[in-house]
Amino acid sequence: MDRIRIRGGHPLSGTITIGGAKNAALPLMAAGLLTDERLVLTNVPRLADIQTMSALLAQHGIAVEPVTADKRVLSLGGAISNTEAPYDIVRKMRASVLVLGPLLARTGEARVSLPGGCAIGTRPVDLHLKGLEQMGARFNLANGYIDGRVDGRLHGATIVFPSVSVGATENLLMAASLADGRTVLTNAAREPEIGDLAACLVAMGARIEGIGSHSLTIEGVGRLHGADHAIIPDRIETGSYACAAAISGGSVFLRDARLDHLGATVRILREAGVEITARPDGLMVKRLNGLHGVDVMTEPYPGFPTDMQAQFMALMAVSDGASMVTETIFENRFMHVPELNRMGARINVQGASAIVRGTPSLSGAPVMATDLRASLSLILAGLAARGETIVNRVYHLDRGYESVEQKLAACGADIERISG
Ligand code: UD1
Q1: Which residues of the chain have pLDDT under 50?
Q2: Model-level pTM greater than 0.70?
Q3: Which of 94, 129, 165 is the pocket-test mutation for ligand 1 (most atoms within 8 Å of CB)?
Q4: What is the DSSP secondary structure assignment for residue 125, as one 8-state letter?
């Protein structure tokens, strides 16, 4: 199994290009199930999760072809020949459940493995199922599978989400685009990735109003057609490399990053002492002086994202003063804490909050990555630490960060991947 070795203490300097957003690419690929025509996606990141989604779509009969040599363009198309999403694929990636709405809308049936828990919590799919039931689907849960059926077509409904869910909003938005009549989604998530999905659906012929707001109104249409769509830059990759520039005391230009997608992340990083300046083609990120402790609470967009919590905590671990990091989205998302503490961080978890007492320096150590964002938090700590850090289990990293060691090494970090 690959590992990453980092020798800390080198301020980063240079340019990092931000790739297409993983969390936009996955639902956009699922949207390929909504039409027989060709959907061409550009700015597709090269990640393990994209390969998993490609394998899932292939299983449904959709041909997924890279149409450029560097494989940043994906072309999807073909008729659905199989409506089962098997356990072997779904267990690798929970976002596989995003095929449920499109399959039901297109074919009237779907058999999708229940995703089950994951390292960061139980993560149920009840909101997806309840919404689709309101649109006329019936579900039977047996043998670890969701068996879904629709008599005829899905119909429009008024759905009020009791809590904000990115995945449920996306599943229902896709299903409603091909349903009979009007659907209103209230208390919808409004992450930039949902806006990107909606923009692509509109390009495919969907009728959606309220894009970017908490309330989406969708007038279902009889069929959707092919489209070309460029995926937005990854705001979490952006925030992660902004933390890398800051924790190393360096200055990095994040090419293609978008300030308007960062929500509370920009304000919080600035409060912590990170200078962020927008330029026409990206963001300049610098740390000139010390970092300060800032309290932060994760919230749905535009609040501070749970997907930035672990990385921000690494920054807080080497800041002046103390900070309280509160996780409100997932119940078990502090597994990076014991690993950071092994590197000399002083972090105490009390329920849903972690109290971080800043320390002037960390020391390198062998550590274990537990999930995608936790992996990056350990790399950040390694950049700041004295001596050598080895991050084990980097397959988590490869799910969501493209060429992380190359991007950081090009800016002067002493980092390499050790294969095998
Ligand atoms: C998406 C992101 C993930 C991010 C998360 C929150 C993708 C592929 N993944 O995940 O990176 O961390 O948003 O920003 O885009 N919930 C329920 N019932 C449901 C659905 C969700 O109780 O049916 C709960 C979850 O357990 C969690 C909360 O709602 O506590 C938010 O989850 P949700 O927004 O659905 O996250 P995902 O779409 O799975």
Answers
A1: none
A2: yes
A3: 165
A4: -
From the CA of 123, how far away is ligand 1's center (Å)? Answer: 7
Nearest CA to ligand 1 atom 39: 167
pLDDT at 7: 98
Q: What pLDDT does 298 receive? A: 98
Query: Burial letters for 200-239: b for 16+ Cβ neighbours within 10 Å, e otherwise?
Result: bbbebbbebebbeeeebbbebbeebebbebebbbbbbbbb
Residue closest to 390 by CA, chosen among 9, 4, 2: 4
DSSP codes, 95-123: GGGGGHHHHHHHHSEEEEE----BTTB--
The confidence score (pLDDT) of residue 395 equals: 86
The label of the residue with tokens 């670890």 reads: 144
The total number of residues shown for the chain amounts to: 420
Neighbour-count burial for 109-141, b at 16+ CB within 10 Å, e otherwise = ebbbbbbeeeebeebebebbbebbebbbbebee
What residue's CA is closest to ligand 1, atom 29?
165
Nearest 5°: the CA angle 238, 230, 380 is: 15
pLDDT of residue 294: 98
Predicted pLDDT of residue 288: 79
Residue in 56, 100, 120, 123 to alter for ligand 1 test, most ligand atoms within 8 A of Cβ: 123
**Helix residue ranges per DSSP H, 272-369:** 309-317, 336-342
